[in-house]
Amino acid sequence: MRWWMVSLNVLNQKNKQQILTATTEAWLRRLGRHPVWGRLAVGEQLAVERLTLPIRGLHPALEGFRIVQLSDFHLYPYTQIGFLRQVIAEATALQPDLIVLTGDYVTLDAEAIHELAPALAGLNARHGVYAVLGNHDLWTNRHMIEAGFAQERLPLLVNERVPISVGAGRLHLAGLDDGWSGQADLRTALEGAPLDEPVLLLVHEPDLFDQYVQDPRVVIQLSGHSHGGQVRITSGKPRILPYLGRKYEQGLYQVNGAWLYTNRGLGYTSVPVRINCSPEITEITLTR
Known about the structure:
- This protein is an alpha/beta fold.
- It folds into 2 domains: 1-41, no CATH class; 44-287, Metallo-dependent phosphatases (Purple Acid Phosphatase, chain A, domain 2, 4-Layer Sandwich).
- Helix content is 25%, strand content 22%.
- It contains 7 helices and 11 strands.
- The protein has helices at 3-9, 13-32, 81-93, 113-120, 135-151, 186-189, 209-212; strands at 47-54, 66-70, 98-102, 129-132, 160-166, 169-175, 199-202, 218-223, 251-255, 258-262, 280-287.
């Protein structure tokens, strides 16, 4: 182990972040001067990813039901509120039936939620806007994040379920506590949910899918967390992926007849770079 790695381990979190930020900025200045990579160093344009998913047990009244997913906002220090307001406007313009938010609203400073939550309150969908928490929300100040959502009357699902009815059809939206640092409990969330009505599950970390898909009521899991790796230079997996975001790091997967979609997110964490990994809005259309 090199001396600087040892030294970094004994610093407190704030000093670590200051050193890592300074190192990252120096690296980005060099990258920005590169004739090829420089134009990608500040990220890529927002993408809208559109999927149509056949869902077992979907009632005919829910045919064409559209869900918009947003994830990993990470407001500050790198992701700015102006960009997130643009995302919110574009998501609302899609006029979906449901909007879901899959965690990590802040990065280092929980107080940023008091700027982000009023902006999120501008989201609008026919059957509402629902959210779950991510690991960064718990690592900063869970209670402050929850208070920010409550102040704007934005519902956070913490091991809870909400039935959504369209005509004679019904599906269940379930949201879990953060799977890394919280107390995620699928059994509690699905208590009383009928066996013959599909469940759309929101959980921040995608790699918990193998566990949750054992319940046959779960037909879709929507997650974020991995940011798709942020930097994708080869066709293989990115070299840096977080815990519980390494197996299903981006895009669509199917296991035991159920679907998982891992959203690439909107913001950045330690490195404000995206290469071949655009920030995204996901629009999912359900079909029989």
